[in-house]
């Protein structure tokens, strides 16, 4: 089976590293320089202090005529629209997997109904060191759920049992995405604003209170079957990634655009729809927007 | 007239610098080293890039038997209780002026009813460079209002018209303190959390929205005669002190205790009294408490 991975960020490179043992993998990057480097020097996976070198195919997405059977889209949510606009480039793929944070991109996927469309969440910790080096900082899993059609070639991945890189199949795509959204809506903005590692939200008592305050607000608009389980999941992610900086923290500190629209922006839309005031989400949303704006100025 | 100033912080030193021309001033410090330095090397006032050297008296407060007619208490709010416990040391003062932020200290002043007790707010910008150097970073005024008794010797100050250092007399102590409290409750925690100068709250649009959100919450519990005037005042202070870091920002960055209890702590008490939920104030209060806690750890 041939696998295409659109996006050469931390998640795209991590997927490429783990899938290359079993499959023929091509990474489709935004910049040609990154593709060149991956082709020439290979992909380096750093794990537990050791580095493994992996050779694979790579090319810039805009020039690609993708013939892979299974395609992963790993770009940030705000770039999904651009990928969908160029869907003729992966017309031959039978199954497409979208691994974005948030929920806002789901409505954009309706033009792909002829394919198997899978959405999923990534619970791994990954840090991109440079264009051809990714570190696996926390071993988790990838959860996949059907949005349109069948699992198709994605079903094979769950059966493969790749060490340190399990795939899990779930039934209800909405509950999969919401579960991740809740985690992202709490941990990401708070760590970015307070400029701390994920674990500090548990260690510093007033920060833990901030998490709880925010969670109480979110549960008014995000569907949770089991509130206690949702809260425990947040705490569990903080524990497991205690020493990591969240992606939003990293985006802010490297003056990149964050995924705040996909995360709290979506929450605020829900609040508007339901007529529920969400002062903390509004406040945090503005804080991150302001930090982005200032970062861009200084950058 | 002899004037005593309890507290050798930025405000205490600024007062000492401006009152020494006309009056015999003694500064009562917490540490003997600061008093020694002030006695030996004098007090230096930096203003518009120029430095003026002023000689005055200084001694540690704990050893002082104060004979001044007029005493200013310029310690932080959380140290007022300790000063009141030692009120026998300034028993001979007829008039005592308290220049703290917040409102919480007012109830502690009831044991001083035999004196003229004045409370006031400082609208100057002041930055303490070292134990005997203070910079006047923003020219404002000091507003005084009677809590118990008469204005006494404090009335003279308002008549004196000291250049760049005016005193204003107001009628209603509560509205004087609330006006300052509103400014402090908005500007201080936001600048400390976002780590920006006061002016950024106006320049960065999402930060301005955060100010507005917080203000809408505060006006539910703080008495404001004219809401628009109160908001305009906040904006005006941000403009006038655009290039300054707030005292709370400075406290956090220098890993000192902040005045968050006196400011948002008081607001939260009011909310409890009135049964009004204040999610943003709670959230910000926890943020600053957490930053204090972490600072202390790392210090």
From TrEMBL, chains A, B:
<keyword id="KW-0566">Pantothenate biosynthesis</keyword>
<comment type="similarity">
    <text>Belongs to the ketopantoate reductase family.</text>
</comment>
<dbReference type="GO" id="GO:0050661">
    <property type="term" value="F:NADP binding"/>
</dbReference>
<dbReference type="InterPro" id="IPR013328">
    <property type="entry name" value="6PGD_dom2"/>
</dbReference>
<dbReference type="InterPro" id="IPR008927">
    <property type="entry name" value="6-PGluconate_DH-like_C_sf"/>
</dbReference>
<comment type="function">
    <text>Catalyzes the NADPH-dependent reduction of ketopantoate into pantoic acid.</text>
</comment>
<dbReference type="GO" id="GO:0015940">
    <property type="term" value="P:pantothenate biosynthetic process"/>
</dbReference>
<feature type="domain" description="Ketopantoate reductase C-terminal">
    <location>
        <begin position="173"/>
        <end position="292"/>
    </location>
</feature>
<dbReference type="Pfam" id="PF02558">
    <property type="entry name" value="ApbA"/>
</dbReference>
<dbReference type="Pfam" id="PF08546">
    <property type="entry name" value="ApbA_C"/>
</dbReference>
<dbReference type="GO" id="GO:0005737">
    <property type="term" value="C:cytoplasm"/>
</dbReference>
<feature type="domain" description="Ketopantoate reductase N-terminal">
    <location>
        <begin position="3"/>
        <end position="146"/>
    </location>
</feature>
<keyword id="KW-0560">Oxidoreductase</keyword>
<dbReference type="GO" id="GO:0008677">
    <property type="term" value="F:2-dehydropantoate 2-reductase activity"/>
</dbReference>
<dbReference type="InterPro" id="IPR013332">
    <property type="entry name" value="KPR_N"/>
</dbReference>
<dbReference type="InterPro" id="IPR003710">
    <property type="entry name" value="ApbA"/>
</dbReference>
<protein>
    <recommendedName>
        <fullName>2-dehydropantoate 2-reductase</fullName>
        <ecNumber>1.1.1.169</ecNumber>
    </recommendedName>
</protein>
<dbReference type="InterPro" id="IPR050838">
    <property type="entry name" value="Ketopantoate_reductase"/>
</dbReference>
<dbReference type="InterPro" id="IPR036291">
    <property type="entry name" value="NAD(P)-bd_dom_sf"/>
</dbReference>
<dbReference type="InterPro" id="IPR013752">
    <property type="entry name" value="KPA_reductase"/>
</dbReference>
<keyword id="KW-0521">NADP</keyword>
<comment type="pathway">
    <text>Cofactor biosynthesis; (R)-pantothenate biosynthesis; (R)-pantoate from 3-methyl-2-oxobutanoate: step 2/2.</text>
</comment>
């Amino acid at each position: 089976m041939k696998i295409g991975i659109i996006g050469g960020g931390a998640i795209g490179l991590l997927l490429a590293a783990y899938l290359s043992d079993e499959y023929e993998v091509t990474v489709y990057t935004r910049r040609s320089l990154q593709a060149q480097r991956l082709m020439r020097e290979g992909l380096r996976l750093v794990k537990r202090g050791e580095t493994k070198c992996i050779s694979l195919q790579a090319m810039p997405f805009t020039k690609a005529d993708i013939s892979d059977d299974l395609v992963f889209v790993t770009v940030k949510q705000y770039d999904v629209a651009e990928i969908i606009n160029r869907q003729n480039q992966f017309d031959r793929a039978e199954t497409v997997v979208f691994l974005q944070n948030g929920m806002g991109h789901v409505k954009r996927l309706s033009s792909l109904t002829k394919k198997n469309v899978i959405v999923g969440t990534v619970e791994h910790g990954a840090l991109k060191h440079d264009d051809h080096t990714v570190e696996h900082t926390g071993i988790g899993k990838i959860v996949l759920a059907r949005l349109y059609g069948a699992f198709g070639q994605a079903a094979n991945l769950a059966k493969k049992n790749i060490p340190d890189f399990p795939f899990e199949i779930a039934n209800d795509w909405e509950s999969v995405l919401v579960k991740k959204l809740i985690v992202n809506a709490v941990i990401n903005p708070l760590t970015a604003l307070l400029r701390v590692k994920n674990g500090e939200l548990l260690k510093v008592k007033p920060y833990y209170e901030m998490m709880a305050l925010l969670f109480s607000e979110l549960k008014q608009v995000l569907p949770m079957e089991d509130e206690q389980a949702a809260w425990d999941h947040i705490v569990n992610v903080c524990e497991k990634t205690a020493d990591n900086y969240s992606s939003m923290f990293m985006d802010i500190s490297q003056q990149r655009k964050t995924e705040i629209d996909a995360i709290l922006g979506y929450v605020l839309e829900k609040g508007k729809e339901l007529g529920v005031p969400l002062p903390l989400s509004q406040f945090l949303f503005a804080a991150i927007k302001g930090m982005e704006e200032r970062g861009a100025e200084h950058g």
